[in-house]
Design a protein that fits this description.
Blueprint (H helix, E strand, L loop, with lengths): L4 H14 L9 E8 L4 E10 L2 H14 L4 E8 L2
Parallel strand pairs: 2-3
Antiparallel strand pairs: 1-2
Length: about 80
């Protein structure tokens, strides 16, 4: 059974926000969007963080909770 988009979005956002290793979690926005010809759902991460490791951690969390959805990482690392 595929989890509905809103639950997936909420869960990923919650886990990212609760992760103590992601200092800039409040600057990461999680959305679930339909893309491409098949209108397949994808998880999109947007925002900015100050370290590559934070970006990578957020992407790993999203992938873990995305089910069979692709994860698109649009997080920018700013120094």
């Amino acid at each position: 059974m595929m989890l509905d988009a809103e639950r997936v979005q909420t869960e990923i956002q919650r886990v990212i926000n609760d992760d103590p290793t992601i200092n800039e979690a409040k600057h990461i926005l999680v959305t679930v969007e339909r893309k491409g010809l098949l209108r397949k759902e994808v998880v999109v991460l947007k925002g900015r963080v100050h370290a590559e490791i934070e970006r990578t951690k957020a992407e790993k969390i999203a992938t873990l909770h995305a089910g069979d959805r692709e994860v698109v990482d649009d997080i920018v690392v700013v120094h």
